[in-house]
Amino acid sequence: MSDLALSPRKPAAPLNGYRIVQSISVFIIALVVISPLFMLFIASLKDDRFQILADMGSFRAFWVDNPTLNNFREVGNFAGELAFGRYLGNSLLILFSTVSLGLIINSMAGFILAWGSLPGRALILSLIIALYVIPQESIIMPLLIIVSRAGLSDTFTAQILPFVASPLYTFLFYQFFAQLPKELYEAASIDGASIFRTWWSIFMPLSLPALATVSILMGIEAWNQYLWPILITQTDYARPISVAIATFFGQDSIFWDRAMAASVLMMIPILVFYLAFQRWFISSFVGSAVKG
Amino acid sequence: MSTLTILPKRRRRSIIARVGWPRFLQEIGMLAPAVVLMTVFLITPFLLSFWTAMTNQPLVPRPTPVRFVGLNNFLRILSDDLFWTSLWNVTRFTLWVLPVQCGLAFLTALILNQKLPFRNLFRGMFFLPAITSMVVVCVIWGTLFQYPTGPLNQILASLSGGYIQPIDWLGDPNWAMFSIVLLSAWQAYGFQMIIYLAGMQGIPDELYDAARIDGAGRWGRFWHVTMPGLRPTHVFVLVITTIQAFKLYTQVAILTQGGPKSSTETVVHYMVRAGFEEQKLGYASAVSVILFLIVLVIALIQRRLMRRFDV
Predict the structure, then answer these.
(1) Which pTM was predicted?
(2) What interface predicted TM-score (ipTM) does this complex get?
(3) Most exposed among A239, B199, B201, B262, judged by the fewest C-beta atoms under 10 Å?
């Protein structure tokens, strides 16, 4: 800062060794991180599955002469062997149901834990924090018994309902609501708003960062579920796209062109979802989780 | 209920007397869905897993009744070489993935935390692999790993002038787990990057200014301000990465099915195979109890360390 006072002109960013190293490393990281994704996108536009593999080791991996949507036409059906249109729809249904139910249910619970007057809230809160330790993988076998005994195997419900209420997200909402000023809550009480109204009309509109964070985390989780759907779905009826893409690997020779197109289909919705919420997400993410 | 308010001896008035029935019912109604769902889908299966682990419960109900077998399942697991192999494999995986994934995340966060043109664009971009489904990641890296003429082998060959022989990334028992490490780190480092960024932004600017006044250079500021300030973040990142690593499953199930020669067999894959393919749900539940205990121990270690750093 003191340089500014001494020299009249504002110094441009000096091109020293440090800056060069910095720029080069950003470039290398970007290359490592982005080029595989870019390659996937380019390859999905190529028609010839042998050419795809042959191109991949060279710069041709990043270039397509005659882009075609044939692969997408082939896999995008709603019925038949390559009904990825249907699987995509299934996944979208699961994504939106899980996230919207999850936002409401977890934020209501977090709100009551933060501002309610029920006795035993502290106990419930510490129980919820303790539950966070249980990994989904370690309860999946008994969960399979419960869900199939309830007659829910091969349904959407079985892929939505178990993942709606989550200790982590209830806790994130609790933490977010608890740090909002007391005056908000008091003002609403004085105006005679019910606790439900206070949550819905006063606190929820102020919770965009928390809502975005939970949406993205839940969305990624719901979209990428793999182990649970292979256990619980037996037919095309409710099968999500992740399981459908994995079946490419069961074949003798993998049809990379179709697999790539299906993968791009799978990436687009979650990408849009991410871009829609990203602005609030990164700034509010885990500042809270680190403390918790 | 209103009689309660009249009783003078009562030290705390009941909730209903304080807030009234409508409010009480509303609060119950708002808390109940989460509590009920967590009870049904989290607490019950969790408790059930301890019970199932001590029975010979099959996946498909059989006419013969389910028998209580005590700790038999655990004893059989602990005497199964394949289980120990899978435990060793996830340990190996963890030891490799920690430095690769957290190192990449830390470096990236360090760079993104400075003045840089298009910083937000890069930040959004570097998170993209983290939103990519593991299945898609397997499609991408499945092509990259092709043997013998896949892209990675071609790049290595041209960089080394043909000196490096093609590697059978997923087919060679010596390389398979390392290949899984590469794609896993690539996919997941974005989360750790963001946690590091949040940690770095939590370090007050005054500390940097003070260090500058004391004559600390870039390196000195990094070593004496950034690193100590990030201690809780380091613990947090290491622990969540370790827990995540012990749950390794999807990429192995898709790309190698635990092979070649069990070199990528993992605890969760072992559990799913026992429960689903061999239909021994009781046995699989016992594996899941062991997995839970491992995760619990890691989480407890985290609490200890966090407390030490916070005070």
Answers:
(1) 0.86
(2) 0.86
(3) B201
